[in-house]
TrEMBL record, chain A:
It comes from Catenulispora yoronensis. Gene3D superfamilies: 3.40.50.2300. This is DNA-binding response regulator. The keyword DNA-binding applies. Transmembrane segments: none annotated.
UniProtKB/TrEMBL annotation, chain B:
The keyword Transmembrane applies. The chain crosses the membrane at residues 35-58, 70-93, 100-120, 152-173. SUPFAM superfamilies: ATPase domain of HSP90 chaperone/DNA topoisomerase II/histidine kinase. It comes from Catenulispora yoronensis. The keyword Lipoprotein does not apply. InterPro entries: HATPase_C_sf (IPR036890). This is Signal transduction histidine kinase. Keywords: Membrane, Transmembrane, Transmembrane helix.
Length: 239, 425
């Protein structure tokens, strides 16, 4: 374990050496809760955490390399009142070229949508089973977009309310199935396509959704969610 | 709920009518018992009317009679019989005479006709109240309506024969038409009275049967409602008593238990029928959409109420697509019960980490669809016997209100419950 020594705060970061050659995805965990910083790497043995940091600024300074950054959305506490957090943190990490997977209990879907708009590639609830968390982090590390069930429902809403219009009929079918909790096996049986084909449609769809959220105006999302004009102005990332 | 309230209102009205005092016709209940009393009242009325017509001619009759003592005795006996029948029917038994009393009544009328031949001059037996026996006989015939057909025919036949015996000596060319007309009156008026009385009696019996059926349906409805309500409460209590239930779930259960206790107290104190087995009543939803319609509620509000107290299940609600769908209050209550029951089942049995509650409106099919999907252990629907929750609360109740319900599950693949209904408006 090494610290950079450049900043006293960085001493609190835990950085593990990267194995010479490993098939497991590498990750950096940014989380203000010490117990989670110390516990999650142990609980997710299939993810190689090369560093666990209490704040985003440390990573932006050190520019450690990893397949994915696992990011808690709320990082401000009594010890780091000025910590970068939320949508701004996602924007900063995305701009620095990191793939960001949120690890949060945040449930407000407009916040989650703003995070995806800011460049987040995935989201895992802290309450999710460990196997699901590991799978989602690995998917984001592999370059896929992982959107949570809440955002799947929001995506269906965007499609039905005419905000997202470029999905193919098959992609719409897969979206409707996922929104209702159908498994790929169930959808495969219903629409007579292989599960791998359906997963392909889903991967394309998630990319389209992530791109759409990055490119769309907050007013469009406000309209779809039934929010008042201007409600998202402060939270939505400015590109 | 609306059905239950309607049934309760009708029952209350029926009970009110049955309880009202039955001394005057407007107060008489429309039951078989009430109709019997009204018929008895009508029979008694004809008897009293006959007596009132006999009174003025008594002196004349005594003066003209060849046997004044016999005439007086028959007159007194007829008046006493009429008064006896009237008092018995209206005050004592409050219904028409039974078959045995009817036989005695007919016998007495025959005696009056046969002995009347001795007491009434032949020229006064037709067209005069001096010969009152034919008028008395008509009231007896009218009061035979309750008898079975064979007995009625026999009794009317005997009375007609006795009447003809009474008038046979007084028949002249001038009064034959009157005699024929009086004879027909006995038969026709008797038949009409019998037809009307028996029809009204049957009508009242049918009304009683219908009331009994409504009461039974209301009882079954209440019994079913209580069973459904107790099912949810029992599930909550069972889980509360389970020490292995996680703290987060216990917190939700406590919230639901408090709501259950509040609801049951309101029920026991007569505050109304159990409105809901969820943590909130439909009142919230009703108030929220009062401006929409007096008898419709928003489906989304119903679903939110149904999901209250189940946050520990990892609920993922997706209700926006149906945010303007309304359902009737009865449908809403059925949907709420089904969703609450499904969530209780998931908590108790599914071992799932996420439950999706999805609502959609499909204008192209004219349907709204609610889907509850868990990622739990599932079960084989063909291999298990459904309990009260699945059988009645989730399947039967929504179907009773015209909704479509489908349960799909397989071991290891979770469970999906789909409820569908027609879009309105």
């Amino acid at each position: 374990m090494t610290g950079t020594g450049a900043n006293s705060k960085i001493d609190r970061a835990v950085v593990a050496p990267t194995p010479a050659s490993t098939p497991t995805p590498t990750a950096i965990l940014i989380e203000d809760a010490t117990a989670i910083r110390l516990g999650l790497p142990t609980l997710l043995p299939d993810i190689h955490f090369i560093a666990t940091l209490p704040r985003v600024e440390h990573l932006l300074r050190t520019r450690l390399a990893a397949d994915v950054v696992v990011l808690d959305l709320h990082l401000v506490n009594d010890d780091q009142r000025d910590a970068l957090q939320g949508v701004a943190a996602v924007s900063a990490l995305s701009a620095a070229g990191y793939r960001v997977c949120l690890y949060t209990q945040e449930e407000r879907r407009f916040v989650l949508a703003a995070c995806l708009a800011a460049g987040a590639r995935g989201l895992v609830r802290k309450s999710a089973p460990l196997t699901d968390a590991a799978a989602a982090i690995a998917q984001v590390a592999a370059g896929e977009v992982v959107i949570p069930q809440t955002m799947i429902a929001l995506t269906e809403l965007l499609v039905r309310r005419g905000s997202l219009t470029i999905l193919s009929p098959r992609q719409c079918q897969v979206l409707a199935g996922r929104a209702r909790g159908q498994t790929y096996a169930e959808m495969s049986k219903a629409i007579h396509l292989s599960e791998s084909t359906l997963r392909g449609y889903w991967r394309e769809l998630t990319e389209i959704v992530a791109r759409h959220l990055r490119e769309t105006a907050p007013g469009d999302i406000e309209h779809c969610l039934g929010l008042a004009p201007g409600d998202l102005v402060d939270i939505w990332p400015r590109h | 709920m609306a059905v239950r309230e309607a049934v309760a209102r009708r029952l209350a009205a029926a009970r009110y009518r049955l309880r009202r005092p039955a001394l005057t016709p407007p107060s008489v209940p429309t039951s078989a018992e009430g109709v019997a009393f009204v018929v008895a009242l009508a029979y008694s009325g004809t008897r009293i009317a006959t007596v009132l017509q006999m009174i003025p001619v008594l002196p004349t009759g005594l003066a003209l009679s060849p046997e004044p003592h016999l005439y007086a005795a028959l007159w007194v006996a007829a008046v006493a019989a009429s008064a006896g029948v009237a008092i018995t029917c209206v005050v004592l038994i409050r219904r028409p005479l039974g078959p045995a009393a009817a036989v005695a009544d007919v016998t007495l009328a025959v005696v009056f006709l046969l002995l009347g031949v001795l007491a009434v001059p032949a020229e006064d037996r037709v067209g005069s109240w001096v010969g009152w026996a034919p008028g008395y006989t008509l009231t007896v015939v009218l009061s035979l309506a309750s008898l079975r057909m064979a007995a009625w025919l026999g009794a009317v036949g005997v009375l007609t024969a006795a009447y003809l015996f009474f008038v046979v000596d007084s028949a002249t060319a001038g009064n034959r038409t009157t005699i024929a007309s009086d004879t027909l009156s006995l038969l026709v008026f008797g038949a009409i009275a019998r037809l009307v009385v028996r029809y009204v009696t049957r009508l009242a019996a049918d009304a009683d049967a219908a009331r009994a059926q409504v009461a039974e349906l209301a009882r079954l409805e209440e019994e079913q409602r209580a069973r459904l309500t107790m099912h949810d409460a029992a599930t909550i209590m069972q889980l509360l008593a389970d020490a292995t239930v996680p703290p987060a779930t216990q917190e939700q259960l406590r919230e639901q238990a408090v709501a259950e206790v509040r609801r049951m107290r309101a029920y026991l104190s007569g505050g109304g029928a159990p409105a809901s087995s969820g943590s909130a009543s439909l009142g919230t939803a009703k108030a929220a959409v009062a401006e929409l319609s007096r008898d419709r509620v928003l489906l989304c509000d119903i679903l939110r109420i149904a999901m209250t107290g189940f946050a520990d299940l990892g609920l993922e609600p997706a209700l926006d697509l149906a945010d303007d769908v309304t359902v009737s209050i009865a449908e809403g209550e059925a949907v709420r019960g089904a969703i609450t029951g499904a969530l209780h089942n998931i908590r108790s049995h599914a071992r799932s980490s996420m439950v999706i509650v999805h609502a959609d409106a499909e204008p192209e099919t004219g349907r709204w669809v609610v889907t509850v999907r868990d990622d739990g252990i599932g079960f084989d629907p063909a291999g298990v016997r459904f309990g009260t929750g699945l059988r009645r609360q989730i399947l039967a109740e929504p179907r009773r209100h015209g909704l479509t319900v489908h349960i799909a599950s397989a071991p290891g693949l979770g469970t999906r419950i789909t409820i569908e209904g027609k879009l309105r408006g």
